[in-house]
Design a protein that fits this description.
With about 120 residues, this protein is mainly β. It is built from no helices and ten strands. The strands form two sheets. It has a six-stranded mixed sheet, with no helix packed on it. Strands 1-3-8-7 form a four-stranded antiparallel sheet, with no helix packed on it.
Length: about 120
């Protein structure tokens, strides 16, 4: 069973940057759709970025041009580079995997959820 561990969250001022990491064990990230989700208090969990096994990337409209998802297959790790952060980006960020071939935005299609990492953006 694949286990995912997120890291890299923290407190940053608006306009700042953070880089999140998601290290996988028990499986190879390049064989899955990998997704970065976030959940703010009182809100539903939403997909912000995803990468297919072939390397195609999806971004939510709210983060396009500011967030970049990448992977290092040798390290079995996916990353989320977040720039120009806004207070609305404040949330717990999770990574998860989808064994399917197509990127879907539905959280229930994903598994292997990590514990999440808190990102707080101050104004």
């Amino acid at each position: 069973q694949v286990q995912l561990v997120e890291s890299g969250g923290g407190l940053v001022q608006a306009g700042g940057s953070l880089r999140l990491s998601c290290a996988a064990s028990g499986g190879t990230i390049s064989t899955y759709v990998m997704g970065w989700f976030r959940q703010a208090p009182g809100k539903e969990r939403e997909l912000v970025a995803a990468m297919s096994s072939g390397g195609y990337t999806y971004y939510a409209d709210s983060v396009k041009g500011r967030f970049t998802m990448s992977r290092n297959v040798a390290k079995n790790t996916v990353y989320l580079e977040m720039n120009s952060l806004k207070p609305d980006d404040t949330a717990v960020y999770y990574c998860a995997l989808n064994p399917g071939a197509v990127i879907t935005t539905t959280p229930k299609r994903y598994s292997g959820w990590g514990q999440g990492t808190q990102v707080t953006v101050s104004s």
